[in-house]
Specification:
- This is ROK family protein.
- The strands form four sheets. A five-stranded mixed beta sheet has the order 6-5-4-7-11, with helices on both faces. Strands 14-13-12-15-16 form a five-stranded mixed beta sheet, with helices on both faces. The protein has a three-stranded antiparallel beta sheet with strand order 1-3-2.
- The chain has 401 residues and is α/β, with parallel strands linked by helices.
- Helix 2 (40-47) packs across helix 3.
- It folds into three domains: 10-87, Orthogonal Bundle (Arc Repressor Mutant, subunit A), CATH 1.10.10; 91-203 and 378-400, 2-Layer Sandwich (Nucleotidyltransferase, domain 5); 215-372, ATPase, nucleotide binding domain (Nucleotidyltransferase, domain 5).
- The chain is globular.
- The chain contains 14 helices and 16 strands.
- Strand 8 and strand 9 form a beta hairpin.
């Protein structure tokens, strides 16, 4: 019998064996990426491979500088000590989130650690070309300093708009005023790095599903509240749902049911016109703020006007969430960005309002949660997009050449 990780059976058998080896390398790299450091024994159990095969595969990943082996836990006293395998922290992705008020750029490790983060405040709307230029400039600067020894797998961008899955074309980002912008190609040309582009909320739900409030949950509705409005992402039966063109999850464009005319602020407006970060900033007297600053300002305010605006937005948000629960029957609803703050400052009130409007059977097992990854969720999601090819095929990635 030939080793499934070696050559055998002629040219065809060698190709098959190499394909099996590539998949097994990918399995091990993904396990330590998603679950964190694992012993060789744990990897053997998780993959079903034998110990010598796991040792061989880990050895190759170490040689490629994708993982590192550490001494076994000294507290383990039963049985043969097993070395611990962890991703090499020098492998990173550049994660980018362009918004109407700022461009956020971060260096995210394969270990999910955010090594560097810059928020560049903007007094004008970014163009796709300016975005590509600023990203390239920041990477060049970091490479002369903190990222001197880093191996950059690629760039991932989380964009508040409709992104065509097949080629990363931003079909429409209305708040940025982008239309048919070839963002992937622009950034790739400017940086010389593999580039992936996705909708911000779709990448946010991926991050929360893998590492946050949706970890281990197979059916998730996620709503993301940002400077550009409200987007959404879906996980159904454990798989991301993108739709035919990659545009699924645009909850912010739905027409909200508003029971009281006094609650309406935008005639014939969509959900993101009514449940709005800009309205919250205006209520607390801020022209601009990042997520933690806005959350702190809302929490600290004792203004009746601020309280009234939060209550109004919660009422409308509750109806939107009830509609999503009725249609999709999720196990978990996750709220990110300013929506997390709206929820946290009146969580019981929101949950009761959702339950009152949803079908009882659909609400039986629904849990409403806020995003655990907080302001990191879009950056970690963008990094996942950049790491996708490396995790699929660790043997044949530009970062290794």
């Amino acid at each position: 019998m030939s080793d499934p990780n070696g050559a055998g059976g002629g040219a065809g058998g060698g190709a098959v064996a190499e394909g099996v080896r590539q998949r097994n390398l990918a399995r091990i790299l993904r396990l330590v990426h998603v679950d964190g450091p694992l012993s060789r024994a744990a990897l053997t159990e998780a993959t079903g491979l034998n110990r010598s095969t796991v040792a061989d595969l880990v050895g190759e990943l170490v040689g490629q500088q994708l993982v590192q082996e550490r001494a076994p836990d000294p507290s383990r006293r039963v049985g043969r000590p097993s070395p611990v395998v962890a991703v090499d922290p020098r492998v990173i992705a550049i994660a980018v989130n362009p918004e109407v008020d700022a461009l956020t750029i971060a260096a995210v490790g394969l270990d999910r650690r955010i090594a560097l983060r810059d928020r560049i405040e903007m007094d004008h709307l970014l163009s796709p070309e300016e975005t590509a230029r600023l990203v390239a400039e920041r990477i060049a600067l970091w490479r002369t300093g903190a990222l001197t020894d880093a191996r950059i797998a690629g760039v991932g961008l989380a964009v508040p708009g409709l992104v065509r899955a097949v080629d990363g074309l931003v079909r429409h980002a209305p708040h940025l005023r982008w239309a048919d912008a070839p963002l992937r190609d622009l950034v790739s040309a400017a940086t010389g790095l593999p580039t992936a582009v996705g909708n911000d909320a779709s990448l946010g739900v991926l991050a929360e599903h893998l590492f946050g409030a949706g970890r281990g949950i197979d059916d998730i509705v996620y709503l993301n509240g940002g400077a550009s409005g409200i987007g959404g992402g879906l996980i159904v039966h454990g798989m991301p749902v993108a739709g035919a063109g990659g545009y699924a999850g645009e909850f912010g464009q739905n027409r909200p049911g508003i029971a009281a005319d006094a609650d309406r602020r935008a005639t014939e407006g969509v959900l993101e016109d009514e449940v709005s970060r800009a309205r919250l900033l205006d209520a607390v007297g801020l022209a601009s703020a990042d997520e933690p600053t806005l959350a702190a300002a809302l929490s600290a305010s004792d203004s009746p006007l601020v309280a009234a605006e939060l209550e109004r937005q919660r009422r409308i948000l509750a109806t939107a969430l009830a509609n999503a629960v009725n249609v999709l029957n999720p196990r978990v609803v996750i709220l990110g960005g300013f929506l997390a703050t709206v929820a946290e400052l009146g969580f019981d009130e929101l949950a009761i309002a959702v339950a009152r409007q949803a079908m009882p059977a659909s609400m039986d097992e629904v849990d409403i949660r806020v995003a655990v990854l907080a302001e990191d969720r879009l950056l970690i999601g963008a990094a996942e997009a950049a790491f996708a090819e490396l995790l699929r095929d660790p043997q044949d990635h530009p970062a290794l050449r």
